[in-house]
Amino acid sequence: MFKKILITSGPTLEPIDPVRYISNRSSGRTGYYLAMEARMRNLGPVTFITGPTVHLPTQVEVVQVETAQEMRTAVGGHFRSSDVIIMAAAVSDYRSMKYYPDKMKKSSERITLELVKTPDILLEIGRHKRKNQILVGFAAETEDIFANAQRKLLAKNLDLLVLNEISDANPAFGNEENQVYLVRPDGVRRLDKMNKAHIAAVIWDDIVSLAGHS
Ligand code: CTP
How far is the CA of 108 from the centre of ligand 1 (A)? Predict the structure, then answer.
């Protein structure tokens, strides 16, 4: 059905010194289920680019990276030849400006760490997306969730945005279940709370229907 499917997954990890890093909460489960579902349905060859996680799909090409910069390089090598790109990775938005090659000692009561932005991989891809490519992004929001989602859909030139509302009732991270919204330029659909394997199946139903319309 598809020539090539590119999926990013897991967190990225931005080192501060040899023993410390900045990261995001992400188990990598949703990305894993998306890859396994694509394989099960025989939708096309999958390249899976992931930050550190225990959830590695089998019988697909797996590329393991650590930092946002490494993920960007790996994605750059596969983006043009892919017709479906799903960016499920929780890329760290910031990294320490400086890497301290020796472990920082706790000699002072307060320290300040200067952070700089990492490249927004999804934004870059959205800018270069071709008409025959389907681009899917993820968002985690805590306030004004629909306005923010619409803004991201447009800004990042997405065909589909999987929106997580992060709240006490729906912690999302680390859980087997989640409640998400599928946001498309033509409307928003609320999915009931369900397990992440099931969510992956519904996301693929949507992508397949988008491909039929393109
Ligand atoms: N993403 C990315 N590169 C980054 C940050 C995020 O590719 N440096 C991608 C993620 O893979 C995901 C989406 O962008 O698909 C998540 O965006 P999110 O972090 O929710 O929003 P941002 O656009 O970064 O805005 P903000 O953090 O201000 O909400």
Answer: 34
Tell me the residue range of the domain where 71 lies.
5-102+110-210
pTM: 0.94
Going by alpha carbons, the residue nearest to atom 12 of ligand 1 is 138
Give the Å distance between the CA of 49 and the centre of ligand 1: 16
CA distance 161 to 139: 7
- Largest Cα span, the chain: 61
Q: Which SS3 state, helix, strand or coil, does residue 87 take? A: strand
50 near 67, Cβ under 8 Å?
no
CA distance 180 to 169: 12
Q: CATH number of the domain that 25 lies in?
A: 3.40.50.10300
Give CA–CA dist 50/70, Å, rounded: 10
Task: Provide the domain count of the chain.
Answer: 1
Helix or strand or coil: residue 46?
Answer: strand
Calpha distance 103→58 (Å, rounded): 36
Supply the residues annotated as catalytic. 24
Q: How far is the CA of 28 from the centre of ligand 1 (A)?
A: 15
Q: What is the pLDDT along the chain (214 residues), one digit of tens a residue?
A: 999 999 999 999 999 999 999 999 999 999 999 999 999 999 999 999 999 999 999 999 999 999 999 999 999 999 999 999 999 999 999 999 999 999 999 888 999 999 999 999 999 999 999 999 999 999 999 999 999 999 999 999 999 999 998 887 777 676 788 899 999 999 999 999 999 999 999 999 999 999 996 5
Strand partners, 138: 162
